[in-house]
């Protein structure tokens, strides 16, 4: 163990015992995420389990998480309760929402129930007015996201030497998606509304990992939820959940487009997201030494195989994937 981690361990225990008493047990690692945050489980004197979020201040800024948590809670979204905090040093003591996220709990038999609860929380989130000054899903963000796909997945991971024609093609895809994002109805967007960021509770789900929320296209979080990063579903179930979501959003007064336009928005938001995540997962492997994320790369390629043929304006991207990417991926890996 290096000196820095040993010091952080001591600080973690000191924070825990400062708030839970001198007899509080040494926190045990509960989980970590794709960033630099980690989560640790300990107990209060009465035996109540608590979660300590460790966000090293030189790597993670916990203040956006706190600000978004307060905004969501005010809007009725179920988020973790804060028991104690030292934001400057990156410590938050939270209620323990259980050992498993919704990814572990959801299955073919109970998916309709859990998706209904997820839709309820998503609609609540989208009804919250984005605060003044909140970041937009703007040109810089869209271009950065698609740049991740180009630089980290195509070039770094697959080792492709892209021609100028191919680079221009990717720029045109970025322009098309940016036009969609700008023209779409705008709401508060979580940006990673997936089952792994939801916690199953009695009669509801709690929402996690919301610190990167922006103002952006209404269809984005629905695309994230039903075309999940870590779990694939049959198309007929996705279609049914999208219909249920759209009905709930309309009933809540959200600016949902008519069905054909909404379906296109979901598809294109999904395409943008799938490309971005391929880039992020490649970066996690090659920069951050977290190779397991790329195990799910075939899932996103399969999503793209499904969506791209329905949009002739993206035929060039489909051709790029078919001629340059898929030959480097085992055919069996393209199954959803």
Textual characterization of the structure:
The structure is a single chain. The radius of gyration is 21 Å and the shape is globular. It has 336 residues and is α+β, with helices and mostly antiparallel strands. The model is unreliable at 331-336 (pLDDT under 50). It folds into two domains: 3-95, Phosphorylase Kinase, domain 1 (2-Layer Sandwich), CATH 3.30.200.20; 102-334, Aminoglycoside phosphotransferase (APH), C-terminal lobe (Aminoglycoside 3'-phosphotransferase, Chain: A, domain 2). The two termini are 40 Å apart. The strands form three sheets. The protein has a five-stranded antiparallel sheet, with helices on one face. Strands 6-9 form a two-stranded antiparallel sheet. The chain is built from eleven helices and nine strands.
């Amino acid at each position: 163990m290096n000196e820095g981690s040993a010091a952080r361990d001591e600080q973690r225990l000191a924070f825990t015992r400062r708030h839970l008493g001198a007899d509080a047990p040494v926190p045990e690692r509960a989980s970590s995420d794709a960033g630099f945050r980690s989560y640790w489980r300990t107990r209060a004197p009465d035996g109540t389990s608590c979660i300590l979020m460790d966000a090293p201040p030189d790597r993670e800024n916990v203040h956006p998480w706190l600000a978004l948590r307060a905004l969501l809670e005010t809007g009725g979204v179920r988020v973790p309760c804060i028991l104690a905090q030292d934001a400057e040093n990156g410590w938050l003591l939270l209620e323990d929402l259980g050992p498993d996220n919704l990814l572990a709990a959801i299955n073919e038999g109970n998916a309709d129930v859990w998706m209904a609860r997820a839709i309820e929380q998503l609609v609540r989130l989208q009804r919250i007015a984005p605060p003044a000054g909140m970041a937009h899903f703007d040109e810089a963000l869209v271009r950065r996201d698609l740049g991740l796909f180009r630089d980290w997945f195509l070039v770094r991971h697959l080792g492709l030497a892209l021609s100028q024609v191919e680079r221009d093609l990717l720029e045109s895809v970025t322009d098309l998606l940016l036009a969609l994002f700008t023209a779409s109805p705008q709401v508060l967007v979580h940006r990673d509304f997936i089952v792994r960021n939801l916690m199953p509770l009695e009669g509801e789900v709690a929402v996690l990992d919301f610190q990167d929320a922006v103002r952006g296209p209404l269809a984005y979080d629905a695309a994230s939820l039903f075309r999940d990063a870590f779990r694939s579903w049959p198309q007929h179930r996705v279609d049914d959940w999208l219909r249920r979501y759209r009905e709930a959003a309309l009933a809540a007064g959200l600016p949902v487009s008519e069905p054909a336009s909404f379906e296109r928005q979901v598809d294109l938001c999904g395409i943008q997201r799938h490309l971005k995540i391929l880039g992020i997962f490649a970066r996690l492997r090659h920069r951050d030494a977290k190779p397991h994320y790329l195990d799910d790369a075939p899932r996103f390629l399969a999503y793209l195989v499904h969506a791209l043929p329905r949009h002739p304006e993206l035929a060039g991207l489909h051709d790029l994937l078919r001629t340059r990417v898929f030959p480097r991926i085992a055919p069996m890996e393209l199954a959803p």
